[in-house]
Write a structure and sequence with these properties.
DNA-binding; mainly alpha; homodimer; 71% helix; 0% strand; globular; 217 residues
DNA sequence: GTAGATTTCTGCAATAGATGCAAAAATGCA
DNA sequence: TGCATTTTTGCATCTATTGCAGAAATCTAC
């Protein structure tokens, strides 16, 4: 509250906090990668970061959260980008861009431990669930954005649109990661999914075919 | 209630197990409703069901799971229905019916504690995450069903379709519950969402309008 | 009905995540 | 430097969860 004269002066206290937070996150990810998630205790992480175990919890509310430390930072960036209005773009375009942004961010290999995070999230049900939760938050942001972009849209339309977009993209992303798709193939798959999101399941020829004959062709 | 000792004789052991499982679930839900989730310990539940605390874990892998005991049973039924082929129906119809089935099951007020379960799931992040997980499993079942119904469909198409359908429906359901929609309104909303799933976001007029009337409110 | 095999229940101990609290240490400021 | 504020820490505690081994209940064959 005090001095705001020189805009950016982190101050020792603040700088130290960030360093500690980062140290905890880095140590945690490294240990998770080395010994595995379950096999790493809070005590281990704290020790590796040179703080008391108790301190861990003043930086992260739970062991799971530390996995998302970096991811969250990325998502914050995306949220900003999402907020920037792009005039001349149709709302649909904006949503499309937002979703792709978010998901590509999640798929991208970030730092040295980016891969570990994704692997952990896909493997540990608890972490996977946590990730889902984040996605839900994002979904709601997109819904809100839709309302901003076109106040005319109905409540349900906005909710459904956000859910459809995020749900479809998420499914494809997870599928691609699990199947070991390379980035290019993933991108292609995402585009296909996006097309379905925009044109509806009705646009999938196979789905509108009369009835499934027992034979193939 | 009558006993025909022909083919199916549950046997005392089996009957007792079911009774215990049910007692645990019922006691748990009752206590959750009375004192709240966090405020109820495993010991409390076990005591109320007249078994040792240790026994709780031989029936449910975790405290969270007991909330889904009943829900899971319902979902199993739905899974069966989902498996039943309905000849002469278009795959799209089948998916549509499946999703609606699943979700209406979840929205329906089951037993005396049905409301409590839904409230808990919506409130406790942990439980909500757990619910998401179940939904993911269902999503995968739908995807598998799609492959069965039309072997011609592409991998990505199936994944995306399942994700879109479930994602869209889930978003609307949650929204309706949170906003306190009555069953009828919820049903209407679901239908609207379903239409969007089938026809795509492109079918929402407001979304394809040129650009947000810049500045205007 | 009883003995022996099988399954379930229970008590006990231990691990680990999470939280509240108050003293100790670090940092900011006059 | 000395006081105010913030962070860190140690400690106690609670609770979920798991492994283990003996006790109790149920089932099967005789």
């Amino acid at each position: 509250m005090r001095d705001m004269h020189h805009a950016e002066e982190p101050g020792l206290r603040e700088r130290k906090k960030r360093r500690t937070r980062s140290a905890l996150a880095t140590a945690a990810l490294r240990l998770f990668a080395e010994r595995g998630y379950e096999e790493t205790t809070i005590a281990d992480i704290a020790a590796a970061a040179d703080v008391s175990p108790r301190t861990f919890f003043s930086y992260f509310p739970s062991k799971e959260d530390v996995v998302f430390a970096e991811v969250d930072d990325r998502l914050d960036e995306v949220a900003e980008r999402l907020a920037r209005r792009v005039p001349g773009e149709t709302p649909l375009e904006t949503v499309r861009q937002s979703v792709v942004d978010v998901l590509e961010t999640l798929v991208a290999e970030h730092g040295a431990y980016g891969t570990v995070q994704v692997r952990l999230i896909l493997e540990r049900p608890g972490l996977r669930a946590r990730a889902m939760q984040r996605l839900t938050e994002i979904q709601d942001e997109i819904r809100a954005r839709l309302h901003e972009l076109c106040p005319d849209i109905g409540e349900i339309e906005a909710v459904a649109a956000a859910g459809i977009a995020v749900g479809g993209m998420q499914a494809v992303i997870v599928h691609c990661r699990e199947q070991g798709y390379d980035p290019l193939s993933t991108r292609t798959a995402l585009d296909r999914a996006l097309a379905i999101v925009e044109n509806g399941l009705g646009s999938i020829a196979a789905l509108t075919a009369p009835a499934p004959p027992a034979g193939g062709r």
